[in-house]
Amino acid sequence: MEGKMKSSWLGLFSLLLCLVGVIFSSTAEAAEETTKVMIHRIVFSGEQNADSAFNNNGQAIKEEELLGGRPLEGATFSVYDVSSRFYELTDTGLEKQEAQKKISEEADQAAEKNELSNYTKVAENQTGKDGIVTFELANYHSGSLGKVYLFMETSVPEQVAYKASNIVVGLPYAAIGSDNILHLYPKNQQQFRRPFFYKYGRQSTDPAEDQKLAGAEFRVYKELAGKTYYLHKDKYNNNNAWVEDETDEGILQVVSDQNGLVELAEYILPAGTYFFEETKAPEGYEITADSRKVKIEIPASFSEPIRVTVGSISSSMNESKVINLKKTDVPPAEPNEPDGPTTGRLPSTAGTSSVSKAARNLPQTGMQQAGSLILLGVILVILAVSIIRKRNHTEEGQ
C-alpha cells in the first residue's frame, strides 16, 4: 500500500515538474516574440543643440550625456508597421539604410497630405513627465523575417518649435540594452516642410467644372530685406541655395504633374514665407495675376498646417486651387470697306459663281454720270442746230 502511495506521489511530482517546464518554456518563447521599446523625448531651450543627435545604439544614455536637454511631456508618438514596404524596397536592390531613409521621407509627405491613415498603425501613446513612452512590439513579420517599424512624432505641445526626427527600426534588435529594453533617442530637428498645391484649368464660369492641369511651370522665391531671392536647383552643402539674379538659368523650375500637383520633390523649406510664381502656362491657357504670386506660409510648429494663399483666398494645401483661364478664340477681323470707287479689276475665282453676268457687267457710278452728260450735250447740239436751220429758212422766205 505504501509502495503504491509513493509511486502516486512521484508520478504527481513528475507531472508538476513537466507543467512548470512547459510554462517557463512558453514564457521564454513569448518573451522572445516581443521587444520592449522605450522612446526618450528630449528638448532644449531655444535653439540650443536643436539639431543635436544622440547615439542610438539601443542603450540607455546617462543624464550627464543629454547635452543639457530636458524631458518633454505630452509628445505623441505613433508606431507604424512598415515591414512590407521595407522588404519591397530592399528587394529592388536598395540598401537597408537607404530604404529606411526613403520610408521616413514618404511618411513626412503622407503627413503633409493627411494620408497617414493609409499606414498600418500598431500603437500610439504620449510621453509622461519623464519624457518617456514605452511600446511592446512583435518581433517577426513572417517566419524568421523581422518586423520593421516607423516611430513618428505626430504632435507636440504648442511651445515646442522642433519635432523629433522619424526613426525606422528593425526587430529583433541585436544590440538591445542590458535591461532587455531597446532605448531610442530621436534627434531634434528644425521644422523643414515640403509645401504643395494644385493647379486647375477653368473653361467656364462654373468652378465645379475646373479640371486638373499638367504642365504649368513655377519658380520659388522669398523676399528678404527688400530683395527677392530665387530657389536654385543646385544645393549648397546639402542645403538650399538662393540667387538674386532672376535671369540665372539654374533657377529651379517646378512643373505641375498629371494630377495638377505642384510640389518640391527633394527640396524642403524651413519655417517662413515663400512664393510660387507661375512663369509658363500650359498650351491653350493664360497666366492669371493670382498665379504669379502664390503665397506659402510654413509655421514654426509641425502640428500647424501649411497655409496657401491665392489672391484673397487662404486654404490648406489639400484644398488649394491655383487657376489658369482658358484662352478665348478671337474671330478674324472684318475687311474694311473702300472709301471711294475702285478701278481695279476683281480677280477671278475657280468654280461656279452665283453672281449673274449682268451683275458682273454693271457699269460703275462714275461711268453712268459721264454717259448722262454726253447724252445731254448731244441733245443740246441737235436742238441748237434745229434752231439755226429754222432761222435760216425763215430769212430765205422773206
From TrEMBL:
Residues 1-30 form the signal peptide. Residues 205-297 form the SpaA-like prealbumin fold domain. The chain crosses the membrane at residues 370-388. Residues 33-189 form the Gram-positive pilin subunit D1 N-terminal domain. It holds the Pfam family SpaA. InterPro entries: GramPos_pilinD1_N, Ig-like_fold, SpaA_PFL_dom_1. Keywords: Membrane, Signal, Transmembrane, Transmembrane helix. This is LPXTG-domain-containing protein cell wall anchor domain. It comes from Enterococcus pallens ATCC BAA-351.
